[in-house]
Amino acid sequence: MRPTNVPPGSSGGNGGSGAGAYGPGGRRIDSTESAVAAVLAVAERYGRQASVEHSIGADQSGRRLAAGAFSVSDPDGSLPHEAFIEIPGRPTVQIHTFSEGDANITLDTVEFTGVPREQAPAFLDAVFGGRAWIRTRLFPASQMLIVPLPGDVTYKEPVLGTGNLTPWLNSILR
Predict the structure, then answer these.
(1) Which of 12, 39, 61, 95 is the most buried (most CB within 10 A)?
(2) CA dihedral for 144, 125, 99, 66, sign (positive or negative)
(3) 108 CB contacts (<8 Å, ≥6 apart)?
(4) Pairing of strands 102-107, 51-56
C-alpha cells in the first residue's frame, strides 16, 4: 500500500530516514544487498537475530517486472536479486525485497506491499521502537495497523478479522 500522504509517482520523499535514500551508518540504499545490510543493522540495534535467503539470477527470482521476457539480466545489465529476511520474535517480521526497488513487509499477519526498499530500515525502526499501533473503530467495525515513519510518511493496512490479532497486535491496540 502507498503511504497515505505521498503523491502518486513519488517514492516517498526523503526515504523515511530524514537523510535521503540512506540507511544506518550513512550507506546508500540503492540495491537489494544494501537494503539487506541496512535492515540487518536495525535488527541488530534492537537485539534481534535475522536470517536471510538470497535469490540471484533470472532463474531464481520470483518476480521479473524490470526486464523483458526471456532476458537474463535487468535493463542496467545486473542480475535480478531478491532477498527474503525473517526476524523471529514479537512481532515476527518478514521482508521480501525485489530487484525493482520495493519490498513486501509482513508484521505477524499483516502484509504491507510495495514499500520502497529504502524505507524498510525506517519501517523496522518504527515497529521495534514502539511507534506502530492499531486504530480500532466500532462502527463500521474495523482495525487498521498504522506505522508512522520520519518525514511525515505513514503506512496503513487493515487487520482482517478479530481472530488475526496476535499477542503483539493486541498489545498495540489504541
Answers:
(1) 39
(2) positive
(3) 91, 92, 166, 168, 169
(4) unpaired
Nearest alpha carbon to residue 103 among 41, 12, 5, 171: 12
Predicted TM-score of the model (pTM): 0.77
What are residue 116's phi and psi, to 5 degrees?
-55, 135
Dist CA 66 CA 16 (whole Å)? 24
CA angle centred on 51, ends 29 and 21, rounded to 5°: 10
